């Protein structure tokens, strides 16, 4: 089976159903969700600093003295990990708390309610 191309959306009809099928210790993750080019062993090798999620400092990105180094760090985080933690962003704790609560409430909804917000298969939405 061909694996998904990097950067493309993998259509998932129901994440909860996928999670339920993989909840047993002897269950396997369906092949279509496995990306051999980024095997877990290559990314997370232990509890040392090399396995920590990259942290990007927005203040350093905006500071001419450190922006070049932090920008390179951001590029590496995006290319190697696909995500990162952003610090010193200035978003108030209350906003973050409300966002997390909103997300938790969204995922508590029924599948039918969440389908109203579903993405068209194989289409990535840009910002």
UniProtKB/TrEMBL annotation:
The keyword tRNA processing does not apply. GO terms for molecular function: metal ion binding; oxidoreductase activity. Residues 53-121 form the Non-haem dioxygenase N-terminal domain. Signal peptide: none annotated. The keyword Protein transport does not apply. It comes from the Eukaryota. Keywords: Iron, Metal-binding, Oxidoreductase. PANTHER family: 2OG-FE(II) OXYGENASE FAMILY, PUTATIVE (AFU_ORTHOLOGUE AFUA_2G00750)-RELATED, OXIDOREDUCTASE, 2OG-FE II OXYGENASE FAMILY PROTEIN. This is Non-haem dioxygenase N-terminal domain-containing protein. It comes from Setaria italica.
């Amino acid at each position: 089976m061909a694996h998904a191309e990097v950067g493309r959306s993998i259509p998932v009809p129901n994440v909860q159903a996928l999670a339920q099928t993989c909840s047993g210790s002897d269950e396997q993750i369906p092949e279509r969700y496995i990306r051999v080019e980024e095997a877990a062993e290559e990314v997370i090798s232990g509890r040392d600093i090399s396995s920590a999620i990259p942290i990007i400092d927005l203040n350093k990105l905006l500071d001419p003295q450190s922006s070049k180094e932090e920008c390179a760090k951001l590029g590496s985080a995006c290319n190697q990990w696909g995500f990162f933690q952003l610090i010193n962003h200035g978003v108030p704790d209350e906003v973050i708390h409300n966002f997390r609560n909103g997300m938790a409430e969204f995922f508590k909804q029924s599948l039918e309610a969440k389908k109203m917000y579903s993405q068209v298969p194989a289409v990535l939405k840009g910002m």
